[in-house]
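Sorry, I am new here, but would you mind making up a protein's amino acid sequence and the tokens describing how it folds?
***
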Amino acid sequence: MSKTEPGVNAKERILAAATKMAQAHGYGGLNFRDLAADVGIKAASIYYHFTNKADLGAAVARRYTENAAATLDGLLAEEGDPRRALRRYPETFRKALEADNRICLGSFLAAETVDLPEEVNKEVRTFGDMNIAWLNKVLLAAGTVGPEASEQRARAIFAAVAGAQLVARSRADPAVYDSLIEGYREAGLL
């Protein structure tokens, strides 16, 4: 995002830049000085919008969850068929790999759970819960599994897709992700 992009206020620019930074380096990589330089403001100006790093991290994770939920709902609406929407679910995670080998913010932050402030952990759990709820809803609508097995299957899909993204990132190769996802499909998980 440009430092001077018209119509975008400083808080939105900070959130966008912080999301990219966290997707590449995690919560530990959020640095107010570098963030301010990226946005084109003084580091002290960030405190006008966010009281501390934990407040910023929670806001970034919350926004990421909101955007992901909108993306998933849009995917289901666009497809109209829950089976096709389920098939396309992994695309939402692949996009991060295509953007400079980043990974899903929720996955990155989940890996840092023991070092995160509680307000950030709360938002990370919300991201996972949102994905599982969406998958559960789509699995039931598709008739893929019955109600007694849908949540467990949703958790397995979420974990498998997030795991495939981590493996692909370690290889800096989205083709590895594609191969793992295809393997999940062949095994009947997706």
The chain has a mean pLDDT of 92. The two ends are 34 Å apart (CA to CA). The chain has nine helices and no strands. Residues 53-79 form the longest helix (27 residues).
